[in-house]
Specification:
The chain has 336 residues and is an alpha/beta fold. It is built from nine helices and eleven strands. The chain has a domain of 167 residues: 3-Layer(aba) Sandwich (Rossmann fold), CATH 3.40.50.300. It is globular. Bound molecules: adenosine-5'-triphosphate. GO terms for molecular function: ATP binding; ATP hydrolysis activity.
Length: 336
């Protein structure tokens, strides 16, 4: 790991709220997928976001990246990038401002590489479409730069002449990462970038992400539900449950001293070699975010739940240096 960053925030998220608002057959429905999330990502660090399916991870990063489409709306709070002064969220900046920063300062690696690569065009043209206007120079100079970058990510430049379907899943994902990093952006959002890959290719791609991040000194917001990947890759880690952040801190600290009962459960569920014991699951299911439980959203499943948890939302408190947690059992009397 590269260490815990330079303590200079590149992204500051404050009380961010993003809801899906739908209106079907006369019924209004509001899914509070992100509901009051606060954290920051420093320069030169990988900040991981963990949490089970439907906890709001993708909605959170889409809101941060300004990729808002109805029925998703940012309804409150802010998500400020240091390279976009004057705007409290990308989604509130005009399209020309967004175009100028996308790929150059902020890039996004998604789970399905085919979302970025045009299936009808050779890979070389995807590079020209996305990066040429940012990097400038003649076509020959630009192509030489792309070839050098392909070599850096250990891809044979002949890949540039292939169509995406001719490449394996691992190679396609490497191409996507090459696209996302060629402009040396300050900030990369990676949403489950290795989930669809087999473990050997996954390890290789994760090693490549870390190597490029170290070389460029950029920041990465890395989303995966796989705690093993977080342990191996991230510098700091945030745990999401039902649209809220419940704990965050340096990754080794979270793994060695988890404070929130949900984090403890996630870590305890990790398989260990030689372990023959049956692991206990959590009772119940994640809440419906259109009608979440009052108080702490984890209380219906929590082994430590107390009466206060059913009515009062616990505040996210720095309980140990650099280690925040939102739990009444850990921080008695701390409400939002
Ligand atoms: N288009 C939509 N309309 C209404 N609700 C939605 C929509 N898309 C997602 N949601 C809801 O928002 C909540 C958060 O979903 P989100 O995809 O952000 O979670 P996630 O943690 O990224 O899950 P996963 O790991 O499965 O991708 C879920 O309750 C989901 O059902």
């Amino acid at each position: 790991m590269s260490g815990a960053g330079d303590a200079v925030p590149v992204l500051q998220v404050r009380d961010l709220q993003a809801h899906f608002r739908t209106h079907y057959f006369g019924v209004n429905r509001e899914v509070r997928a992100v509901d009051g999330v606060t954290f920051e990502v420093n320069r030169n660090e990988i900040y991981g976001l963990a949490g089970e399916s439907s906890s709001g991870k993708t909605t959170l990063v889409k809101t941060i990246a300004g990729l808002l489409k109805p029925p998703l709306e940012m309804v409150g709070g802010s998500a400020r990038f240091s390279f976009l002064p004057g705007w409290d969220a990308i989604g509130r900046a005009p399209p020309e401002v967004v175009r100028a920063i996308r790929w150059r300062h902020l890039s996004y690696i998604m789970q399905g590489s085919m979302n970025v690569l045009n299936p009808l065009r050779r890979v070389r043209y995807s590079f020209r479409d996305f990066a040429w206007r940012h990097l400038g120079g003649s076509k020959v100079e630009f192509d030489a730069r792309v070839v050098a970058h392909m070599e850096r990510v250990k891809l044979d430049p002949s890949v540039l002449d292939a169509y995406p379907h001719e490449l394996s899943g691992g190679m396609r994902q490497r191409v996507t990462i090459a696209l996302a990093t060629i402009c040396k952006p300050d900030f990369i959002i990676a949403d489950e970038p290795t989930t669809a890959l087999d473990v050997v290719v996954q390890k290789d791609v994760l090693g490549m992400i870390r190597a490029i991040q170290c070389e460029m000194g950029s920041s990465i917001l890395f989303i995966t539900h796989d705690m093993g990947v977080h342990a191996a890759l991230t510098d700091r880690l945030g745990i999401m449950y039902a649209g809220r952040l419940v704990e965050d801190g340096e990754t080794p600290e979270i793994f060695s001293r988890p404070l929130h009962p949900y984090t403890r459960h996630l870590i305890a569920s990790l398989p260990r070699i030689g372990d023959t014991e049956q692991r206990e699951g959590l009772d119940g299911t994640p809440p419906n975010l259109a009608a979440p439980p009052p108080g702490c959203r984890f209380h219906p499943r929590c082994p430590l739940a107390m009466p206060v948890c059913t009515t009062i939302v616990p505040a996210m408190v720095e309980t140990l240096p650099g280690h925040r947690v939102a739990c009444h059992a850990v921080n008695p009397g701390m409400a939002t």
